[in-house]
Structure prediction request, 637 residues.
Amino acid sequence: MTTPAIRRIQEQAIGSLWFTCAIFAVLTVCFILGYLFYNGYPAFVQIGLQDFLFGLDWNPTGSPPSYGILSLIVGTILVMIGAMVLAVPLGIASAIFISELAGPRLRNIIKPAVELLAGIPSVVYGFFGLVVLTNWIRVSFDVPTGETWLAGSILLGIMALPTIVSVSEDAINAVPREYKEGSLAIGATGWQTISKVIIPSALSGITAAVILGIGRAIGETMAVLMVTGNAAVVPEPIWNVLSPIRTLTATLGIETGEVPIGSLHYNALFAIAVVLLIITLIINLSATFILDRIRHAQTGSADTKRLFSQDTSVQIRRFLQYGFLGMVLLLVVVAAGILPCLVLLVVLIAISILWKRVSPKITQKIAYSCMFAAVGIVLAILAIILLDIIMKGLPVISWEFIFGYPSNLGRAGGIFPAIVGTIYLVIGAIMIALPIGIGATIYLSEYTREGLVTKTIRTGVDLLNGTPSIVFGLFGFAFLVIFVGLGVSLLTGWIVLALMILPTIIRTSEEALKSIPNEVREGSLALGASKWQTIRKVVLPAAVPGIITGTILSIGRAAGETAPILFTAVVFSTRFLPSSIFEPVMALPYYLYILSTSIPGAKQYAYGTALVLLVIVTLFYGAAVLLRTRFQKSIRW
Prediction:
C-alpha cells in the first residue's frame, strides 16, 4: 500500500473522529429531550395533558394529589416579565453608552464590570437576595416576608443584564460606521443618529439580546428558588407583586431530591422538565434564527439587505416598541391596577407629544443623561453586591476558615473540603469536555463547509448551551445516578458539568480557529504537509490563547454552578476528602446554598463562603478577560 494511500486513510479516520465529537452535542440534546419525555410521558397520560397544563393546583402530596402546573407557568412568566421590564431599558441604554458614547478608557472599565456581573454565580445572587434584597422589601413595604415575586424579578433582571448588554453592544458595533458618518454629515445630532439610524439598523440583534435575556430569566433556578417564597399559587389579586410565587425551575430544584422513584409525582417532575425544555428551546431557536438573518443580510446580496432592512427590521422595531410598552403597562396593571395603568398611558402619550416639540439639542442632553444614569445604575448594582459580600465576608476569612474542616453544621470550622471538592469537580469536567469540544471545533472549522450538517451541529450546540442547568441536574439524577447506577458521586458531577460547559468551549475555540488566516493553512499545505499536520502544528498552536480563554470561562462557570450538582455529586458536609471518583464531594456553591437556607445562625460563615466562591470565580473570569485582551493586541496577521 502506497504512502499517499496510508495518509489518506489516516486523514479520513481523523476526520471521522472529529465528526463524532461534533455530532455529540446534537445527540446529547436529542437524548436528553427523549429521556425526559420517556419519563414524563406517563404523567401526561395519567394526569391528562389539559389537566396538567391548565390545572391551577400543584399539590403532589395532598389527598388526593393534584398535578396542575398553570400556577407554576404563571409564576415563571410573571417573574420573567418583571425582570425584562428592569433589564431591557437598562441593558440597551448601557449598550448604547458603551458603544457610542464612552471613550476607550471608560469602555475598558465598564465592559469588564458588566462581564463581572455575568460571572457572579447564581447562588451568590440568591444569597444576596435572601439576606439583603428580601429584607429591604420586607421593611420598605411593611410585609411579613420579602420572599416575593418582586424579589425574584429584581434579581433575575440583574442577572439578565450582562446578556442583554453584551449582545446588544455587538449588534450596535456591527452597524457600518458609514451609516453614522453619513447621518452626521447631513446635520443630524448625535442622538438623532443613534435613535434613527444606528438603533433601527441594530434592532434585530437587540431583539436577539432580549430573547436571550428572556431565556436566561426563565432557565434560572437557584436565585428564584431562594427569594420567591416558593408558594405554588397565582397571586391574588394577579397584580400583587408582593405575593410569593413558584417557578417551573424552582419546583424541580425543591422536589426532585425527595420524590419517590417511579411514582406519578416523579413522572410529573419530568413532564415539567419537558415543558421547561421546550420553552427554552423555542426561545433559543428564535434568537438563533434572528442572528442568522442578520448574518445573511450582512453577507447577502443588495436585494437581500434591502429586503431585510426595509421589511424585517421595521417589523421587529414595531414589535419591540409595542411589546415593550405592553410589558410596562402589564406590569403596572399587575402591580397597581387598571386606574394607574390608564394614568400612565395618558402620561406616556402626553410625553410623546411634548417630546416632538423639544429642540434636538435638549432631546440629546436628556437622552444622554438617561443612558449615563443607566450605566450608573448597573455599576451601582455591582458595587452594592460586591461591597456587601466583601465587607461582611472578609472578617470571617482566616487560615482556619480556608484550611479547616466544617463543624457544628457549618457554624464553625472551615471550608477546605468544599474548596477541594469544587476543584475536583472543575478539573474532571474540563478533562471530559475539553477534548470533545476541541475535536468538535476542529471539525466545524477545518473539515466541513457551511451546509446542513454544519448548521445542524451548531444548532445542537446552541440548544445545549440554552438548556437550563436544573435540566442537566434532573437528567443526571435520573439517568446517571439511578439508571446507570453511578450514584451521587464525583464522576456523575464530572459528566453533568462537562455537558453543561461543552458549548462554551466549542464556541470560543471555533472563534479562535476562525481568526487564523487561510493563507497560513495554504502555505503549510503548499510545503507538502497533510491537513492534519497543518492543523496540529500550525493552526492549533496559533489558536491556543483563544482556546485557553474558552477553557477558563468554562472553569469559572463550572465552579459557580449549583443546580447541576444538586442531586448528582454533592453532600453538605464531610470530614474527609473523597478517595474515589464514586464518592460524593463537598462543593462551595451547594455548601453556601445550604448554609443560607437551612442552617440558622450560619449567616456569618455563609458570607465568608460566598466571598471565597466569588473570588475564585472572579479570578477565572478576570484571567479570561486579560488573556483575551492580550491576544487581541498581539494579533498581527
